[in-house]
Amino acid sequence: MTKEVEEYLASxxxxxKYFGMEQIVTxxxxxxxxxxxxxxxxxxxxxxxxxYSFIKYAETPDVKNFELFSRESFNYAMSLPKSIPVGxxxxxxxxxxxxxxxxxxxxxxxxxxxxxxxxxxxxxPGILDMFSKDLYYYPTTPVWGALYYNGFRKEIYxxxxxxxxxxxxxTQSAK
Length: 175
Fold this sequence. Notes:
By secondary structure, the protein is α/β, with parallel strands linked by helices. It has one domain. It has five helices and eight strands. Strands 1, 2, 3, 4, 5, 6, 7 and 8 form an eight-stranded mixed beta sheet that branches. The longest helix has 17 residues, at 63-79. It is globular.
């Protein structure tokens, strides 16, 4: 893991607290380097919203491993206990965020087209290019996701992008 990634993860811990996320303490594993969760009632989600973020640094990223990381992060989040059943008053939003030194065209194209449908739950992955600090994710809204996808794009950007963090700090210092 590079020094830049370690610094990002240290900053991420603070920003996740800012967004009301708590770290999920787990033993080191192959799937993710950091995990966070937040549970709260959200009227826009029609009940209890369970939000998860999983972070994985990939020194040699590829599409197959990114897709596996996203899918398995979603499966792990779904396996965690929820106080209300998903689909019966609760939703799940999962943000797997893959950290790469420099994104490849293949990865950028893949994440911009990656859309995995789930019942009353959402898998919305992103890839953060550590060199440019650009965050890549699904940029459009499917018809069936009209109520949520703009919010997902905003939330993944705000929670995971150093560029968003700088925008937030500028807004706060202007007040």
